[in-house]
Amino acid sequence: MVSLRGKKERLGAAAALIVALASTFAHGRALPQPREAVFAVESELAPTSIDRLVEQPLVVDSASTYRASEKAFADGALRPADYWASEEGVGHFSEWSKSTKHDFIADWALGKANEWTIVMGNEGGDLDSMASALSWAYHLSHSTLHHPQPRKAVALLQTPLDALDLRPENKLALDNSKMSSGHRDLLTIDELPAHPRAVAKQIRGIVLVDHPLPLSVWADAEVVGIIDHHADRGVAPHANPRIFETVASCTTLVARQMLDELEAIPGPPDGPGEYHMPHELLELMLDAIAIDSDGLNPKKSTKTDADVSRRVLERSNWHNESLSQVMDRLDKELGEAKRDLSHLSVRDLLRRDWKGDVVETTDTATPAIHLGFASTPVSIDDQIERTERKTLKDWFRVERRWTAEIRADVSICLNKYKDHKGNKVREIVLTVRHDHRINRTQADDLFRVLSSALNESFDLEEHPKMKHHAGKKRRQMVWVHGRKDAGRKVVRPIVERAVKSWISP
Ligand SMILES: *[C@@H]1O[C@H](CO)[C@@H](O)[C@H](O)[C@H]1NC(C)=O
Ligand SMILES: *[C@@H]1O[C@H](CO)[C@@H](O)[C@H](O)[C@H]1NC(C)=O
Ligand SMILES: *[C@@H]1O[C@H](CO)[C@@H](O)[C@H](O)[C@H]1NC(C)=O
């Protein structure tokens, strides 16, 4: 425990830093770059962030992360002069998206956050999450436009601004939908006006799309709706809508609900009739469904995906083309973009598709653990080639920096690739750190527990590169295994269960 005096001193230092930061802002200098530290899902924000502010210069960025402050966005002060003006998106959809982001930030400053519903996808931030969140936010606000109190809804991408660029397929889809470059018409997590925990307490509620369970930072927000294609985790039984169905793409479920409700709005003279559905949005939906269903490949998708795609297509600008033509084309274009990760460093590969959160353990004396998963389509050998010294040790060094930044205790990297014979290979990399929530003794034990939980489910073999790496001692392991279905959807629950039931020695 820190003594009160020590704490006071640190608080004083932190306050000084904050003042310094604030004055930098006030003078409009030094636009801080969004940092990955936003991924840090800390359970106790205030104490840690202050500690970190004082102890590590790195964290200055973290403190300024949720920084699209009160006035900043409304008047654009913290942005470069050309922020809103240059390279604007030209679409109707882009305009709506940008003005919604603007209004949300402005209402926050005016103390009217309680009028807002935030629609959020998962923190991996793939195209499906992005399209689902944008579509549902658009629907919520437009379907109630004729109400006395139209619903205010904004889509939140739970990835930082710069992480969006790690998904070339998202970039392409946004370009195709005539959105601004740099995604500045989208609200990303690092642009929230305050830490998510603070935002959660003030807003009207959240709608989850493409994930069944809110991240722990949103625990204080009411879940008012869920639309998802993962397993139902029993969250928010009274949410409305509350839709769980197994389909290729969550966007399918969002689009179906949206079109059903849209078509049910009575036309004049009894009602306002359908609201305007921009073709860019419809096309974004088709993009998401195409990439998740491999172009409506029957092995990868359901009849629902096909039926809904057809309805969306009919309203889009591509309606003169056949469904299979369009979906094949999109799958090919976006798929190519998605697979082209040759330019990414190991660090970027890890954060490109990172999903992590703090997992509470069942045993009350055992600390909660921040557990994170990366998935990559690149072998560990290929990744090692991308490190400075081209060694496994160097790979773990990059990994260690990344998990230090986001304060993860356990990290798992899942690689899937084809070997030169065309066989699918899966790799699991496990590391456990001892410097965040647990000490060495605990970390050693947790590493052992997780290793055996994984070994029970997958026939693990040590990766050949492990021969010359004292991995076990460092709690670093790379395994290879042959279980074909073992993507994150399969591995994550196994590891989560093992973490939850772990009892600290
Ligand atoms: C559909 O219409 C677009 C322009 O409206 C045109 O460029 C395209 O060739 C048409 N496709 C087919 C298959 O008719
Ligand atoms: C690690 O933490 C546990 C639980 O708090 C404690 O019992 C143990 O003595 C600690 N071990 C070391 C080496 O600090
Ligand atoms: C996995 O379990 C098997 C059988 O219990 C054992 O022989 C093997 O060494 C274990 N492998 C690892 C990587 O722990």
From TrEMBL:
Gene Ontology CC entries for this record: cytoplasm
SUPFAM superfamilies: DHH phosphoesterases (SSF64182)
Source organism per UniProt: Pseudozyma antarctica
Official protein name in the record: Related to PPX1 - Exopolyphosphatase
Gene3D superfamilies to which the protein is assigned, alphabetical: DHHA2 domain, inorganic pyrophosphatase (n-terminal core)
Residues annotated as domain DDH: 118-289
Residue ranges constituting the DHHA2 domain according to the UniProt record: 332-498
Cofactor: Mn(2+)
Chain coiled-coil ranges: 320-347
A molecular function (GO) term: exopolyphosphatase activity
Domain of life of the organism encoding this protein: Eukaryota
InterPro entries: DDH_dom, DHH_sf, DHHA2, DHHA2_dom_sf
Keywords: Coiled coil, Hydrolase, Manganese, Metal-binding
Pfam families hit by this protein: DHH, DHHA2
